[in-house]
Amino acid sequence: MPFSLELTEEQRDLREWVHGFAAGVVRPAAAEWDEREETPWPVIQEAAKIGLYGFESLADLFGDPSGLSLQIANEELFWGDAGIGMALFGTSLAVAGIFSAGTPDQLAEWVPQCFGDEDEPKVAAFCVSEPEAGSDVSALRTRATYDATRDEWTLSGQKAWITNGGIANVHVVVASVDPALGSRGQAAFIVPPGTRGLEGGRKIRKLGLRASHTADVFLDDVRVPGSCLLGGRERLDARLARAREGVRGAPGARGQAAMATFEVSRPTVGAQALGIARAAYEYALEYAGERVAFGRPIVENQSIAFALADLRTDIEAVRLLIWQAAWMARNDKVFDAGQGSMAKLRAGELAVAASEKAVQVLGGAGYSREHPVERMYRDAKIYTIFEGTSEIQRLVIARAISGRQIP
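User: That's the sequence. What structure does it adopt?
Assistant: Structure tokens below.
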């Protein structure tokens, strides 16, 4: 599909619909759920009732041939609040894992179970990071062993910092099936609801995104049917054979179970960070127009006006990066210069810069919980850390532009 910056009528309607939900439902509830540090199930249920949370809505977002609808929805929702936004969209990372590696039959069986229904909504978890393996996914210690007589896989290990970990209906777990091959010896598995041996750790108390549940996940001889291997045994065996012969299964990182998902999701993570940045900028702009000091609104001070002008410029530029990367991912264009990482890198760092500047513009008021920029500032920081730190994004970009394996 040709790349275009002109949104379709459907995309404009989507933006207005999600923005309305973010303004009318998410923002009024944001401070409460941040303070409670609990999963906002009533908000998730409200989103499910209007069709914003669920299999059909996400399928529509993923199905947009331009790749932009998912980014538009994330930007608007996270403009409302990042903690509640992650509680709603955290499931989409697990769904992205199923989409990137699963067969059509697996998609049809498991994606609906990730969401539940409007009467009893569910969430899903994508389990990659470990205590000793964060950005370095090649160091995963979780193991998957196959019993051919039973057509059964056994998963053992520990996952760390997992969104919806332990409370999810469906867990998607990345494990090593051939440690000698590093990241190319990994595969992704579905752990169905109620499977014995999977336990969630205590909920982690975090700096930001407090409405989103984060916990470790423990896998103690978790047994799943052979059908729970995403992509199937035949595809895995073929990929492992190519890896053992020194032949890459696909360009870049697409042959790796974890990195294939991250490659698809990084523009979307960037859109989430952009939503925070835009919300902080808009709040600071409005405040600066109303706050009077030394006889005039502070926005008339050049130092503040120029800072806000820079933020608006950066927001527009980062959105273009995100949209370009999203279009490339959706249309199977190779990220020859690390466009997905560029989008995530710049958006994450902008979210931190914009929310920090918003606090500064508000002064002492911005440091209090009477204004949402304090919460935005806390929420923003994670976007320079998860799904690859800023340093890892620079490494990906450097390798892409140089063609060299920079350590």
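The first strand starts at residue 124 and ends at 127.
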